[in-house]
Amino acid sequence: MPKLNIALFASHGGSNAQAIIDACAGGVLDGSVAVVISNNSQSGAMEKAATAGIPSYHLSSKAYPEEERLDQAILETLLTHEVNLIALAGYMKKLGPQTLRAFAGRIVNVHPSLLPKFGGHGMYGRRVHEAVLAAGERETGVTVHLVDEEYDEGPILAQARVPVLAGDTAETLAERVLQCEHEFYVETLQRIASGNISFPALR
């Protein structure tokens, strides 16, 4: 398996992106972060990339109003930086068809529930945790999955379970799930890098 050369996509705070950056820098993850892409010029992920000396790009509909041109700009950026894996880390936009085709089987995402429960369009962040609590679930968790044309429907690569505790609020549950995400996403990416998770598209 080749060393991972990762593009991180993030829209907001970028805590998962930071966990991956740190894991690469610390030798925990056999790979490097080649580039960070965000649709939000003020995102924490862009700041974290700058601090780490990683190239970052604000690519959004503001600069590229035509969806096809935005998709092309993203793909060109990925190819320029010789990326072989895309890791979505709180990216709130759907990838375009050109990027999906070029990186088919090489795009992963982390979702804060045990898919297929509580996934799909509009299910992100606090909404997921509120839905888990409203359903009376006794456990939730983290899912790392491949990305395809539909929200949260790609093949599941790995899952970690997080208990729902008595008295949990959306905020307390979100905090515990996010901590699990930081560790589990890195762990799963390392399993991909080491070949412990079958990933034919990287061969």
Shape estimate:
globular
Rg estimate, integer Å: 16 Å
Which CATH-level-2 architecture of the largest domain? 3-Layer(aba) Sandwich
Structural class: alpha/beta
Largest sheet: 7 strands, mixed
The helix/strand series, from N terminus to C terminus, equals EHEHEHEHEHEEH
**Any idea how many domains?**
2
State the end-to-end CA separation.
6 Å
Task: Indicate the CATH topology of the largest domain.
Answer: Rossmann fold
Helix content: 25-40%
Overall average pLDDT: 95
> What is the topology, as strand order, of the major beta sheet?
3-2-1-4-5-6-7
Number-wise, the strands total: 7
Task: Note poorly predicted spans.
Answer: none
Strand content: 15-25%
The H-level CATH homologous superfamily of the largest domain, spelled out, is Formyl transferase, N-terminal domain
- CATH top level label of the largest domain: Alpha Beta
How many helix segments?
6
What would you say this structure looks like, in words?
There is one protein chain. Helix content is 36%, strand content 21%. The chain has helices spanning 15-25, 44-52, 67-80, 97-102, 126-134, 170-194; strands spanning 4-9, 31-38, 56-58, 85-88, 107-111, 139-146, 156-163. Strand 4, helix 4 and strand 5 form a beta-alpha-beta unit. The termini are close together. Helix 1 (15-25) packs parallel to helix 6 (170-194) and helix 5 crosses helix 6 (170-194). A 7-stranded mixed beta sheet has the order 3-2-1-4-5-6-7, sandwiched between helices. The model has no long low-confidence stretch (mean pLDDT 95).
Topology:
Blueprint: E1 4-9, H1 15-25, E2 31-38, H2 44-52, E3 56-58, H3 67-80, E4 85-88, H4 97-102, E5 107-111, H5 126-134, E6 139-146, E7 156-163, H6 170-194
Parallel strand pairs: 1-2, 1-4, 2-3, 4-5
Antiparallel strand pairs: 5-6, 6-7
Helix pairs in contact: 1-2, 1-6, 5-6
